[in-house]
Each structure stands twice: as C-alpha cells, then as structure tokens.
Amino acid sequence: MPTQHDSFESFGFKPQILRGVTDAGFVTPSPIQSEAMPYILEGRDLIAQAQTGTGKTAAFGLPAMNRIEQTDRVEMLVITPTRELATQVSDELFKLGRFAGVKTVTVYGGQSSYRQVDLISRGAQVVVATPGRLLDLLSSGRLKNFEPTIVILDEADEMLDMGFLDDIKEIFKFLPKERQTLMFSATMPAPIKELAGRILRDPVSVKVTPAEETANKDIFQQYYVIEEHERDDAILRLFDAEEPSKSIIFTRTKKEAERLSTMLIAKGYGAKGLHGDMEQKSREEVIKGFKSNQLDILVATDVAARGLDVKDVSHVFNYHIPFDPESYVHRIGRTGRAGKKGIAVTLVTPLEYKELQRIKKIAGADIRQESVPTLGDVKKAHSGKLVSAVLNARLNDDAQRILTVLEEQIDVQQLALKALSLLIEKQNITGPDSIGVNPQRLEKLLNDHRRDRPSKRGGAKGGGYSKFKRNGGFGGGDRGGGGNYRGNRTRSRRDDR
Ligand code: AMP
Question: Which of 54, 116, 415, 476 sits between 20 and 30 A of 470, alpha carbons compared?
C-alpha cells in the first residue's frame, strides 16, 4: 500500500516537474494522485478507476513526464476517446510539463495529417491522440520510429462505448512490447477487463475508496449547471439572490482562492482567502474574523478548511466540483451545524455532470438541480424587499431636516423617485441577464452526446466524437480538426477552437 501523500514534494519529482505543479497552483495531491503516482513512478503498469474532475490527468501526466528522458522522439502516448478530451489533456500536460521542456503534439482526425506528422518529427516527446487518426497514421507507416515507452489509455470505458475497442487492439500491435501501460477508466465493464488483461503486465489497481459518511439531513443541497466561463457571474448572482449571511466558497487552488477573494472584495463583499500557504498567524486572524462576523465570506481550499468549525455558516459554495465524494461531504458539512439548516451549492459544467452523478450516488446525496435566477428575477425580488424596507423604515431626524431643504427645490414625487433610485443603485445588482445551462438544454446536450456516439466505428476516419467542448459548450467532433504543437519554443496557433 502506498503511503498517503499530503504534498507533491513527497513523491520525489524532478524540480522542473515540481515547478509546473507549483505554477499550476496545486497544493495537495488529489486521492487518485496520491494513490496512483507512486506506482507509476516505480514503472508499474496500472489500472485506475477515476474520471474527469478527479485530477486524473495529472495523476498519470506528472509521473509519466517525470520518467521520460527528454529525447527528441516520442516517449509518451496518451490515447483519448474524443478530440475535446485530447485537447484538454494536452493543455494540462503543457501546463504541468512546460518547465521540464516537454513538447506535446495533439493528433485527431479531419484535417490533413501532414502537419501532425511534421510536428511529431520535429522532436515532440508526448503525443495525445484519438484512436481513429492514430491508427491511420500507424497503419500507413507514416510515423517513423514511433516507440513510446509509456502508453496511457484514458477513459477506456468511453472508448468501448464509442466503438473504438477494435481500433485500440489494432493500435497496440504497432506499439513496442517493452513499455509501461496505464489504463484509466471510470467503470470496468467486462470487455475493458479483457482488454486490460491483454495490454497490461502485472498491473496494480487503484481506486479511490467511496465515502462512508453521507451528507447531513439539515443541509439543502443544490447544483447549477453553467458554462465554464460563467463561474464568477453565477457566484455573484447567487449572492445577490440568496444574500447568504455567512458563507464558505471552496476552490481547488490557492491561486483561485486569492483571485476570487480579490474579486469579491472589489465588488464590495467582506471576503478573505484561506489557504495552506498562509502563515499560521494570518490564518488564525482570518478564521477569527469569520467567526466574529467581521468577514462574511471565506474563500478556502480543502486543506485550509480541514476541521474548520464555525457554527453559523449559512451557505457552502463549491466553485468547482470537488475531487471525490469524501471532499464533497466534508465541504458541505461546514454548514448545517449544531442543528441549524444550511445550504450547499455546487457549480458544474456539462462536462463535470457525470462526476456530479457519481458523487451523488456514492455520497448518497440528494442534490437538486436549480436554475440561476435571472437579473430580472433578482431585481424584482429586491424591489419587493425595498418596498417593505421603505414601509417599515423608522423616521430619522436628519431626514426630516433634509426634506425641509429639498422641498423648496423639487416636487415631492420627483424627490421620492430620486431617493429610491439612490437606494436601488446602492444595491448594485449587475451581470448578464441569464446565466447557466437550463435543464432542457442540458438534457438535449446529454442526449445529443449519447446519440452522436457510433456504436461501431463504421469506417469513419478520425474516430468518433463528442459534442462537448472543453468549456462545456457545444463543439465539433473528432473529425474536424488538425494537430497542435505545445512546446517551449514553438506554440502554434490553435486551429480547433
Ligand atoms: P482532471 O480530472 O484531470 O480533468 O482534472 C480536473 C481539474 O483539476 C483540472 O483543471 C486540473 O488542473 C485540476 N487539478 C488536478 N490536480 C489538482 C490538484 N492536486 N490540486 C488542484 N487542482 C488540481
């Protein structure tokens, strides 16, 4: 059994790789990372049960990039079912491997393969590819000296669903026998187990253990489906709509905690970040301020909030979906304490939707979908509150004095309108009118996604496709794009987005 790792330093990565980790803002390894990385570093073959959102890309990417030897040939191959995932994986590897000088080429179907082959031959160590195009390049003999020593099959069960299994088996015929093979899959249906038996050698299996604790019944749990770029707008809108008295927003990284708290302060909220890099003294000050209501919002990373015990937290917001059911349960458990009711809000993109369903199932959580209120809704609700506030306001002596002055200069109705306008302006409710993906559209996205998967590859070059873009919106398929080169010296224009 590997030991639990609380920091990335403890794995013994090369300094250049660690720099990528720090620069990305990662502080604590996610469960799948601390389980899988030691084995991969040892050179073992591995089967891991994990899906998007759990930190799986770094779980294989960091140790694999740490192991490659920085030659000018391909040493690492990642096979992903869709073009979107290929792009996402390639972005993540670029982010984490750039200080180590790792160059990555993304290969998927559609465009002329000339450029892709050319980029690979210019000295990339990592290729991220979809099965169709990769098989075309291999079987036509256009990839010379293609002998990756580490091969990663990402989302293997998706490959099966999309009818790529035969292609995958075929691809492995072209790969060197002496290699390290890693397989990531959210589920393990029989054909995937059978495939694992063929392509892996004495593999270790890792799986993040499900949460035993289930969520507290006093917590009302909601989720909002939004596009990736709408996270800040959604948080601000929910604050305007719900007016939480005391809340914690969870982020994945310290950088994000800092950015978000700065943004909230700029918008006039009493917010502060809380993360593991802060000195003990300033952490204690922030917690004290939060407990004594000098601060309304704490923007915290999981580690920093570990064990945080504040009794009257009204809302917990998950800015991103947490890595696993345990952290979900832990995060939302910061509210609904001491017999009080609490609200837990999770923002998810259509891409993260599946992971949310998994968390729901494992944590036994009842999380309901809600729609982000429109600007109009919030304004209307606030007008209602304003009406009762005005009706219930106690008269102030200064007001009487100012009225005497104003009455001589302006008609009373005009005066009332102006005074109300000032109050409304103070509420400062802004942002786009509507935010998020409504249930009907989400349903359509999910249905289209299912329908678009060919059950057999049916001769289509370039593989199957998903309509999800990385940002959760609608995109093209695996057939439509070209290749990308991600490297230190050259970064070509991305032609897929
Ligand atoms: P993945 O499951 O690979 O799609 O990763 C989901 C997201 O989590 C990506 O945006 C990663 O950059 C981010 N991520 C991965 N590992 C960590 C970590 N240890 N700490 C913070 N963020 C992470």
Answer: 116
Task: Give the residue numbers spanning the domain of 391.
Answer: 375-427
What does the pLDDT read at residue 450?
A: 61
Given a contact cutoff of 8 angstroms between Cβ atoms, the answer to whether 115 and 494 are in contact is: no
Say if 448 falls within a structural domain.
no
Same structural domain, 114 and 36 = yes
Distance 53 CA to ligand 1 centre (A): 6
Q: Which stretches of 122-230 are DSSP H helices?
A: 131-139, 156-161, 165-173, 190-199
- CB-ligand 1 contact for 56 (6 Å cutoff): yes
Which range, of 416-420, 477-481, 482-486, averages the lowest pLDDT?
Answer: 477-481
**Judgement on whether residues 202 and 235 belong to the same structural domain of the protein:** no
CA 252 – ligand 1 centroid, Å: 8
Amino acid at site 9: E
The type of residue at 331 is: R
Domain contains 407: yes
151 and 72 in a common domain: yes
205 CB-near residues (< 8 Å, 6+ apart): 46, 47, 48, 49
Q: What is the distance in angstroms between the CA of the first residue and the CA of the last residue of the chain?
A: 42
> What is the structure's pLDDT at 455?
43
With a 6 Å cutoff on the Cβ, whether 464 touches ligand 1 is: no
Q: How many structural domains does the chain have?
A: 3
Q: So what's the pLDDT on residue 132?
A: 94
Which ligand 1 atom is at minimum distance from the Cα of 253? 21
CA distances from 97 to 65, 125, 131, 322, 357 (A): 7, 11, 23, 24, 31
Say which residues have a Cβ less than 8 Å from residue 471's Cβ, sequence separation at least 6. 227, 228, 229, 349
Q: Does the CB atom of residue 253 touch ligand 1 within 6 A?
A: yes
**CATH number of the structural domain spanning residue 153:** 3.40.50.300
Condensed to tens digits (0 to 9), the pLDDT of residues 119-166 reads: 999 989 999 999 999 999 999 999 988 999 999 999 998 888 788 999
Question: If you measure from the C-alpha of residue 37 to the centroid of ligand 1, how many angstroms do you get, rounded to a whole number?
Answer: 14
